[in-house]
Amino acid sequence: MNSAACALSSAIAPLSTAFESKVGDPAENPYTQTPPRKFNLKLGTQHGDSDDILKVMAAFGVNHICALPPELEKGGDWSVDALTRKREHIESYGLKADALRLIHPSYVAKSEIQYVMMGKSPERDREVDAICDKMRNAARAGFPMVTYNLTMLGVVRTRSTPGRGGATYSTFKFEEAQDHDQLTEAGKVSAEQSWERIEYFLKRVMPVAEEYRVRMACHPEDPAMPEPAGYRGAHRVLSTVDGLKRFVALSPSPYHGLNFCQGTVSESLKNPREEIYDAIRYFGSRGKIFNVHFRNIKGGFLNFQETFPDNGDVDFLRAIRAYKEVGYDGMLMPDHVPKIDGDAEGRQAFAYCFGYIQALIQMVNEEGKAEEVHN
């Protein structure tokens, strides 16, 4: 779809109606289909689909994956043929390609949608055209979901800090951040300007998502920043529970939802130990959780460490039971892990997290089966 076509579509389809479903019986669609919702949590991964990685994932029983985008690999080929080969390569190891990463959480100057985030036309129209083409090709190649980010700051952290057993924990302490007033290339952007740019993006991509039945899973901005001051001239409107509530309400489409990063949402809360479960229930009960980054933290708003799953403030058993309660049936995966001396690329740390999450999944899945028998 070229820019003129996008403009025509915008003129005849206001935001409230552009998001309405245009498709009929899922069985008649030649691309992807939304699976029936029933409780059956899955262990997933998002850290690559090379032969070496897939062999290990298959051995661990990590049978679902959010595949890396072609940009992060040699060639960057987003053609249907290349993406189909990627999916078939993944499936040859017994894994299911449940998702494909579409837009990485990059700093605005390095983002593939920098003009969308800056609000500059006609450059942003061309960026959205390219994203729509990638969405079409992903659906045609058999990927039922894409994950993406809408951020100007990327992932913000301060100096790492010591953790359990000498591990190093990724950390954010707002009081230690040195560049509060250093504007990004976007300059000062108000909260409402940010919302306008988000709505512009959604208004143009959601009709494609609905036509091709590909779910769009948006990751929250990581981490939340103080309001109304903002940070570096930006306001992270997609970093809080209230902001995400407004975001999911922008479209009633079943293809509009969240790559629900439990760690990032916890970072926005003053007391994640008690508050995160209601956030899971709110978005999960509305069918807006499409994927879960299952990460723990110590601390909360403006001061936190990323931890192993068993030594953060959030009770992972209570959290996974909340996903069960709302009928979530997708992937849970570790996204970041602490660093350990001698653990190249975090392989052992990730193995620990996979095993921990797998045990929780097996337990609550069995609980669900027992409840079905009892009822």
In short:
The chain has 375 residues and is α/β, with parallel strands linked by helices.
Please explain how this structure is put together.
With 375 residues, the protein is α/β, with parallel strands linked by helices. It has twelve helices and 13 strands. The strands form three sheets. It has an eight-stranded parallel beta barrel, surrounded by five helices. The protein has one domain (38-374): Alpha-Beta Barrel (TIM Barrel), CATH 3.20.20.150. A hairpin with a 5-residue loop joins β5 (161-162) and β6 (168-169). The protein has helices spanning 3-12, 15-18, 51-60, 80-91, 114-118, 123-140, 191-212, 241-248, 262-267, 272-285, 316-325, 347-374; strands at 42-45, 64-67, 96-101, 145-149, 161-162, 168-169, 171-173, 215-219, 256-261, 289-293, 296-300, 303-307, 331-333. α6 runs parallel beside α7 (191-212), α10 (272-285) packs parallel to α11 and α11 crosses α12 (347-374).
Multimeric organization: single chain
In N-to-C order, the SSE pattern is HHEHEHEHHEEEEHEHEHHEEEHEH
Order of strands side by side in the largest beta sheet? 1-2-3-4-8-9-10-13
Strand content: 5-15%
What's the structural domain tally?
Answer: 1
Number of strands: 13
Instruction: Tell me the name of the CATH class.
Output: Alpha Beta
| Overall pLDDT level | 90
Name the CATH superfamily assignment.
Divalent-metal-dependent TIM barrel enzymes
CATH topology: TIM Barrel
Query: Structural class, please?
Result: alpha/beta
Main sheet characteristics: 8 strands, parallel, barrel
